[in-house]
């Protein structure tokens, strides 16, 4: 599903990633661990093409993205769901519209949108908040909305960057349960975090990044 | 359509910026249109002027039939001349009698006809330089058998020079306001674009195409221009019905003023056409 071969990324003189090679299989749930500045976010950015690699080969969901045309980027991203630490919800839209946006961007007809939005909101237990605005919700609720927005397009890959960074332990467990739920349905998941709780005792593969290198691969 | 709804929503949310731009664009279009109207009227006036002004060519009493025929031929063959009419001494006197009417008694007791025979020359309708009329008249003066030429040349000259000045002024003002309107649309959309920066980032992340991101802003530019045009048209109708029409009633001389009202309907179109490229420039190149 995701394949990196000898990928390097430089910011001027700084080597953010050094010759990374890794392979994530379809349906896997994989963690990217490491301290601050290790290069976790940079690696995710390469995968969704917010940044271009300086060296190496990357393929995602069947796209060879080292040779992908700029105009294909939107279509790559429609195959990827995103969950970020800072949510990236639009504060001037209702919960409903925030989630519906992912479908409107894909050109779904309005008639299909209502039902789909309510069904994912039910999945994250926030059906009753559909008319609220994001800032009227708690951090955990906002993250579940972000999750709902990410899964509604039925992506084959989910990327999460510090998805529990702003959440307390209960909300952390809630969001991890959701990830496991969609992983069980076949979605490939890559989570970057420095929070060991997320992967301890999961049995999933964990890549440890340090200073732009993969220094270890373990089972959580 | 979703993009269109976004544009409407944005206009509602950023009411004041948008209202201000609509008013600015309307004012610009209004001035542009007024200048156009003035130029249009002066052009029309100057076109009809030579036709209205007739040239009277007075003939020498001594001129014989051969000479007069020759003069007629010369005049008729000139490119500026539409038609001529020969007025003999007798006809001139008859016309004068008709004109004088009851006061015709002053002519009683005059035995000899004191009037000249003349040729009444009508010029073609059209847009030709006043110099060509002048040189034509100078040519005529040199012809044997012509005693004098009467022509409302000074009126024509002043209208023509007014026309030239107005043309230059009109094009300058027109160009300035043309770019002003483009710029208003540009800066409005630019401001809105920056205000929506976060939103655009999210759109990109969720896989929105460039068209999808641009569309609401283009609609917004278009709508600002459209409403500006509609507003300008309304202002112009107002000015026409409440000021120009009343002015014409009070000062009938001004009745030559001709406002081609059907052109007003092009204002909204013109506004939209200007609003759209302004918005397009403002968005510029997008990068994912
Ligand atoms: N746009 C950029 N320009 C220059 N340097 C950058 C840029 N983005 C990241 N870096 C640098 O690259 C290195 C890796 O950054 P990255 O964001 O990938 O770390 P991270 O592992 O996600 O850290 P954190 O856990 O704090 O989020 C850091 O040293 C950072 O300063
Ligand atoms: Mg990071």
Secondary structure blueprint with pairings:
The complex is a heterodimer of chains A (220) and B (288).
Chain A: E1 2-11, E2 14-24, E3 29-33, H1 40-47, E4 55-60, E5 63-64, H2 73-77, E6 80-84, H3 95-105, H4 110-123, H5 139-151, E7 157-161, H6 169-184, E8 188-193, E9 205-210, E10 213-219
Parallel strand pairs in A: 3-8, 3-9, 6-7, 7-8
Antiparallel strand pairs in A: 1-2, 1-4, 4-5, 9-10
Helix pairs in contact in A: 3-4, 3-5, 4-5, 5-6
Chain B: H1 2-13, H2 15-52, E1 54-59, H3 65-76, E2 81-87, H4 89-100, E3 118-123, H5 130-141, E4 146-150, H6 153-195, H7 197-205, H8 210-250, H9 266-283
Antiparallel strand pairs in B: 1-3, 1-4, 2-3
Helix pairs in contact in B: 1-8, 2-6, 2-8, 6-8, 6-9, 8-9
The complex binds adenosine-5'-triphosphate (ATP) and magnesium ion.
Q: Could you explain how this protein is built, in words?
A:
The complex is a heterodimer of chains A (220) and B (288). Chain A has 220 residues and is an alpha/beta fold. Helices cover 30% and strands 29% of the residues of chain A. Chain A has helices at residues 40-47, 73-77, 95-105, 110-123, 139-151, 169-184; strands spanning 2-11, 14-24, 29-33, 55-60, 63-64, 80-84, 157-161, 188-193, 205-210, 213-219. Chain A is globular, with a radius of gyration of 17 Å. By secondary structure, chain B is of the alpha+beta class. Chain B has two domains: 2-47 and 160-284, no CATH class; 54-151, Alpha-Beta Plaits. Chain B contains nine helices and four strands. Chain B has helices at residues 2-13, 15-52, 65-76, 89-100, 130-141, 153-195, 197-205, 210-250, 266-283; strands at residues 54-59, 81-87, 118-123, 146-150. In chain B, strands 2-3-1-4 form a four-stranded antiparallel sheet, sandwiched between helices. The longest helix of chain B has 43 residues, at 153-195. Chain B is elongated, with a radius of gyration of 31 Å. Chain B starts with a helix and ends in a 5-residue tail after the last helix. The mean pLDDT of chain B is 83. At the A-B interface, helix 2 and helix 3 of A face helix 7 of B. The structure holds adenosine-5'-triphosphate and magnesium ion.
């Amino acid at each position: 599903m995701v394949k990196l071969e000898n990928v390097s990324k430089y910011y001027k003189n700084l080597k953010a990633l050094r010759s990374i090679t890794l392979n994530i299989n379809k349906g896997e749930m994989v963690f990217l661990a490491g301290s601050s500045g290790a290069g976790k976010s940079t690696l995710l950015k390469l995968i969704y093409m917010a940044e271009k690699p300086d060296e190496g080969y990357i393929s995602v969901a069947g796209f060879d993205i080292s040779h992908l045309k700029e105009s294909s980027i939107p279509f790559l991203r429609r195959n990827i769901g995103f969950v970020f630490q800072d949510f990236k919800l639009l504060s001037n839209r209702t919960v409903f519209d925030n989630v519906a946006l992912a479908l409107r961007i894909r050109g779904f007809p309005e008639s299909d949108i209502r039902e789909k939005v309510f069904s994912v909101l039910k999945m994250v237990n926030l059906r009753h908040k559909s008319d609220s605005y994001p800032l009227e919700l708690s951090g955990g609720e906002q993250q579940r909305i972000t999750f709902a927005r990410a899964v509604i397009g039925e992506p084959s890959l989910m990327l999460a960057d510090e998805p529990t960074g702003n959440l307390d332990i209960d909300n952390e467990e809630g969001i991890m349960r959701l990830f496991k739920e969609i992983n069980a349905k076949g979605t490939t998941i890559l989570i970057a975090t420095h929070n060991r709780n997320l992967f301890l005792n999961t049995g999933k593969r964990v890549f440890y990044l340090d200073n732009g290198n993969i220094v270890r691969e373990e089972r959580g | 359509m979703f993009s269109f709804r976004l544009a409407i929503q944005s206009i509602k949310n950023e009411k004041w910026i948008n209202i201000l731009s609509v008013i600015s664009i309307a004012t610009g279009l209004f001035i542009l249109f007024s200048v156009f109207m003035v130029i249009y009227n002066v052009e029309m006036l100057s076109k009809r002027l030579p036709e209205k002004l007739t040239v009277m060519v007075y003939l020498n009493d001594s001129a014989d039939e051969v000479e007069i025929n020759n003069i007629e031929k010369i005049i008729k063959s000139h490119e500026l001349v539409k038609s001529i009419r020969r007025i003999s001494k007798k006809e001139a006197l008859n016309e004068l009698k008709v004109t004088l009417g009851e006061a015709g008694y002053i002519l009683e007791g005059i035995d000899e006809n004191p009037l000249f025979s003349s040729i009444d020359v009508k010029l073609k309708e059209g847009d030709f330089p006043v110099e060509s009329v002048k040189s034509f008249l100078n040519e005529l003066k040199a012809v044997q058998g012509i005693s004098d030429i009467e022509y409302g040349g000074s009126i024509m000259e002043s209208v023509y020079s007014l026309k030239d000045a107005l043309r230059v002024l009109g094009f300058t003002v027109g160009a300035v306001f043309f770019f002003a309107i483009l710029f208003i649309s540009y800066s409005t959309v630019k401001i809105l674009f920056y205000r929506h920066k976060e939103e655009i980032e999210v759109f990109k992340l969720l896989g929105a195409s460039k068209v999808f991101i641009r569309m609401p802003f283009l609609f917004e530019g278009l709508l600002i221009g459209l409403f500006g045009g509609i507003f300008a048209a309304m202002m112009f109708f107002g000015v026409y019905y409440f000021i120009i029409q009343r002015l014409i009633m009070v000062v009938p001389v001004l009745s030559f003023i001709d406002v081609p009202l059907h052109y007003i309907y092009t204002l909204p179109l013109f506004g939209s056409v200007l609003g759209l490229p302004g918005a397009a420039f403002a968005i510029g190149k997008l990068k994912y």
